[in-house]
Specification:
Structural class: mainly alpha
Strand order of the largest sheet: 3-4-5
Helix content: 40-55%
Strand content: 5-15%
CATH class of the largest domain: Mainly Alpha
Oligomer: single chain
Number of domains: 3
Number of strands: 5
Largest sheet: 3 strands, antiparallel
């Protein structure tokens, strides 16, 4: 018998239904008298046995004397077809309540893996298959995993099409994201004992490239930049909607991430001991929590536990009429600060994408482009600016993190004691935050909000998103 799966089994694996009877299979000293196979997984399991037997008989015997009895067949593998393992992995990610964005990105990566390997048993995937996937990723045409016109295209056809389109190489961050998703997938299979080891063990994280591009814009705003952004003659005509007006101001004086700002609710604006604060947090949406089939209970999302924080509202924001705007929003009866922004919905699952910032990023980017700012200088630059300015003042990282929500590595401290027994005193933290906010005063004049300024946009409740 040749060192490959039998033709009958190979044909059966391609057939979703049926029963296969095999008799009298001899592979060296191994023997199968009778095998009745029902189902795809049983066929792949038998194939694993045969391939293992072929591998075993192909090795040189270390013992001088053989035996007159055939050796027992190897135990069938626990692994199942790749498509089935992918399906279970994605379902488990949903069960663990990982974000839809992470689940969708993992699904795309594993589609590339399936296209590179075929629907084989995961136990047969090795480093050679991963190399093939890197090749596919390098030349994958745009929309390979999403465009209906490319559905059913073969591995070689996809690469050939990508080469004709002269697709650019993947960005290092994108390639690393694919690697991390593959590592997580195969590690899960190892933990479940479906495979003995991960083929990704051979693929380490690339070395950091410290090359500096002198033409790349610096992601930092100076005072002239800020005055240009909030100049009355340009900002006021552009900022016709509530989120256009307030999101950049909040970003400037909090350093918050763009989605943290765009998903704010009225209940996130709180008064604590006479100090008005913004709570960047994730709170329950009752309509989602009461839906039996949806996994998410909130349309808000957080990057991690450390990103949930409450910080004082800077005095310039208060002077610009922020609390007046809050009163106008309360009068609408809607729970959110910017109800004209949608969180988006996943077409396949019906779940919320929890990305209120998606359209705003596009709109704000267009505005910045009209002002002459280069590619890469966007809303997140407010965050870079605040952190850099506080650092230049000599403020230590843990104090800055109370404003920005960055995670600070805990060293030489008991994690259990720190998280469960050392209770934080909000007033002490608030005093530190207020001191920092007093120190951070960009030299820019914000336009003043007028009550009822956005009445036109807030009049039609049917245009609001949950």
């Amino acid at each position: 018998m040749t060192a490959s799966p039998s033709k009958e089994i190979a044909n059966y694996i391609a057939t979703p239904f049926g029963t296969l009877h095999l008799e009298g299979i001899h592979i060296g000293r191994f023997r199968i008298d009778l095998a009745v196979i029902q189902g795809r997984e049983a066929a792949i399991n038998l194939q694993e046995c045969i391939l293992a037997a072929l591998d075993e008989t192909g090795r040189k015997r270390v013992l001088k004397h053989g035996t007159r009895y055939p050796q027992p067949l190897p135990i069938g593998a626990q692994a199942r077809p790749l498509a089935r393992e992918i399906e279970d992995h994605l379902e488990d990610m949903v069960r663990r309540r990982l974000g839809p964005k992470t689940v969708d990105a993992t699904r795309r990566t594993l589609k590339f893996l399936l296209m590179s390997c075929g629907d084989i048993s995961v136990a047969r995937i090795d480093h050679k298959h991963i190399h093939e996937m890197w090749k596919l990723l390098r030349w994958a045409p745009k929309g390979l995993t999403s465009d209906p016109l490319l559905k059913g295209i073969s591995f070689n056809e996809a690469i050939a099409l990508g080469k004709t389109q002269e697709v650019p190489p993947l960005a290092p961050t994108t390639e690393e994201r694919h690697r991390r998703f593959l590592v997580a997938f195969f590690n899960q299979l190892v933990r479940s004992r479906a495979i003995p080891s991960s083929p990704m063990a051979a693929f380490r994280k690339p070395e950091t490239d410290y090359t500096i591009d002198p033409n790349k814009p610096i992601r930092l705003f100076d005072e002239d930049d800020l005055r240009k952004i909030f100049a009355r003659e340009t900002f006021i005509p552009w900022a016709k909607k509530p989120h256009f007006w307030w999101a950049p101001m909040i970003g400037l004086f909090t350093g918050a991430r763009v989605n943290e700002v765009c998903q704010l609710k009225l209940s996130d604006i709180v008064e604590q001991k006479g100090v008005w604060c913004i709570a960047f947090q994730k709170t329950l949406d009752e309509d989602l929590a009461g839906h039996p089939r949806l996994q998410r209970q909130s349309r808000q999302s957080v990057k991690g536990k450390g990103s949930m924080r409450t910080i004082p509202i800077a005095e310039p924001l208060l002077q610009a009429g922020f609390l007046d705007f809050i009163e106008d929003m309360k009068a609408t009866g809607h729970r959110r600060l910017f109800p004209l922004l949608s969180a988006g919905t996943n077409r396949e699952t019906g779940e919320t994408n929890a990305r209120y910032s998606q359209q705003f990023i596009v709109d704000f980017g267009r505005y910045m482009k009209t002002l002459g700012f280069g590619h890469g200088v966007a809303f997140h630059t407010f965050r870079h600016t605040l952190i850099t300015e506080l650092d230049q003042m000599g403020i230590h990282d843990p104090a800055i993190a109370t404003i920005t929500g960055h995670s600070i590595e805990k060293r030489d401290r008991s994690k259990v004691m720190d998280e469960h027994y050392k209770h934080k005193k909000p007033l002490t933290a608030r005093a530190t935050q207020m001191e920092l906010m007093e120190m951070y005063r960009p030299n820019v004049e914000l336009p003043r909000y007028r009550r009822g300024q956005f009445a036109k946009w807030l009049a039609d409740y049917s245009k609001f998103y949950p």
